[in-house]
Every structure is written in C-alpha cells, then in structure tokens.
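User: Now give one protein:

AI:
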Amino acid sequence: MLNLASRSRPFLGAVVLTAALLSAGGIYSVTRMPSSVYPEVTFPRFMVVARAAGLAVPNMEVQVSRPLEEAVRTVIGVAQVRSKTIRGGSELSVDFNPGTDMRRAEQLLWNRISAVRSQFPQNTELNVEQMTPSVFPIISLALTGVTARAIA
C-alpha cells in the first residue's frame, strides 16, 4: 500500500513551493482586508444626547428636551424625532429621509442645536453621533439568579 507521503516524495519541491505561495497569499490577503464585524453601513439617524447633572425629569423635559426637539424638527430632511428623558439626561433619536447627505445633515443639526443652546442650563453637555453598526453591541447577556433557602 502506498500512502500520500510516498507518492508526493518525487514532487517535494512543488508541494513545498505551492504551500509557501498559498501561505504568502493568505497572509497578504489578511493584511489588506478590512476587519469589522458588520459591513460599514450608514443609517440615516443621529442620536443627540444632552446631560444636565441633577436636573429633575420635569425640568429636564421643559428646559432641554422640548427646545431640542423643536429645533431639530426644522432641519431639512428630518423624517421623525423621538426622545427619552430621564433625571439629568435626554436622548433624541433623529431619523432622516433615505438618501439624505448625512454630513450636511450633521452640520445643519449642530447649527440648529447651537441656536437654542443658550436656553439650556449652564452645565448642559451635548453630544451628537451618527448611528452605525459598530455602535450596537454584538451580544448582550442577561443573568438572573434565584436564592435558595435552607430548610431546617
């Protein structure tokens, strides 16, 4: 019985050369390929996060959330604005129409926010970021536990 090793002995140089070329090609490809979990996709959505430490929910809603909502609704291309308000924070999700130039939309968004920023409390921090797949978690895990009582 002849095995594969004995059959490939006369072609040892060709086998080694082929393996070396395939390895070199693989290493070259790995270094040139973009690495990402998800393909880079641009959603027509921005998140506007406002933080004002210690401000109660009703005050946060009246002094920050509503003026922000009214300001960003007037930006060209806005389809929908949703907001969540908690103690000391407000989060607005600003959805744009498909096909909107997102760079220009971000500039217009910042312009409208800057126009109403003087109405906010002094310590208000604002952050605007575009939603991309890299922002979302890959996996989320929820653990719950049950405590056992000893029966005596």
Summary: The two ends are 72 Å apart (CA to CA). The chain is about 40% helix and 20% strand. The longest strand covers residues 78-86. The chain has a mean pLDDT of 85.
